[in-house]
Amino acid sequence: MKIIAIGCEYVGTSTLMEQFQAWLNESMGQTTIIHDHFKIPHVSGHPPIETPGTLLTDQEKQQVLSMSPKVKEVFTRYALYYHTPSQTDHSTVIGGMFSGHHFDELIYAPLYSGYGGPGEPGDRRVEAQIIEQNFLKYAPETVLVLVRASAEVVRQRMKDSPHDDSLVRDEDIEHVIQRFDEEFARSTIHNKIVLDTTNSTAAETFEDFLAKMEPFWTEGDRLRMLTHSF
Question: Is residue 111 domain-resident?
């Protein structure tokens, strides 16, 4: 089972994945890494559990931000393909939980990083199509989760609890929300879930997520849940 959670910053994708990580450990005895490092300059580390030395320092983040668009494009493209299922040992190499992945690159790279636009080297539309073909071929059980919230709620959360090195700008919130809606609809990944956190607590959202996941558990997932309950 693989999960890709996507959505504008502040809608709750990271919170959802952290809750799911804890639930998997409790319900299946399964320890799964969250890959939540697809937004520049956050290009290293696996929150919320960090291996010492994997998070970038403030100085290293500035080094990432100062890279040319060409270098950023090459670096992030390599990172995307490393975290994409392939014929090789994808199950142990890339884990099963992703926040953003190629959707972050599709939306944020042309908007904020100066690369990946239509017809440009590393066109993220082209790369996304290749990446999704690999997910469909080597991990067809993948579930794509769109997490949404109203623009007003996103603005309030941004004001109340600003992220370090936040990417989304206030004036772009409506546009970014719309872009995630568009790319979710366009995605060729078959298994899809939509969650709205506008008026829901984190706990309520997670309960909704588990209910909507019911049709997508694999036989292996169900067996692990059953055997772990004894």
Answer: yes
HSE (CB half, 13 Å, CA atoms) of 10?
Answer: 27
Q: Distances in Å between the alpha carbon of 149 and those of 12, 13, 98?
A: 9, 11, 19
Q: Which long-range contacts (CB under 8 A, 24 or more apart) does 90-96 make?
A: 90/138, 90/139, 94/35, 95/32, 95/33, 95/34, 95/35, 96/1, 96/2, 96/3, 96/32
Supply the CATH number for residue 213's domain. Answer: 3.40.50.300
Do residues 37 and 45 lie in contact, with contact meaning Cβ atoms separated by under 8 Å? yes
How confident is the model over 150-208, as pLDDT tens digits?
999 999 999 999 988 899 999 999 999 999 999 999 999 999 999 999 999 999 999 99
Classify residue 230: in a domain, yes or no.
no
Is the full-model pTM beyond 0.85? yes
Where in the sequence is the domain holding 119, given as residue range(s)? Answer: 3-225
Task: Kindly report whether the peptide bond that precedes residue 52 is cis, defined as omega within 30 degrees of 0.
Answer: no
Confidence tier at 132 by pLDDT (50, 70, 90): very high
Residue 160 counted as domain residue = yes
| Total domain count, the chain | 1
Token pair in block for residue 74: 């090459």
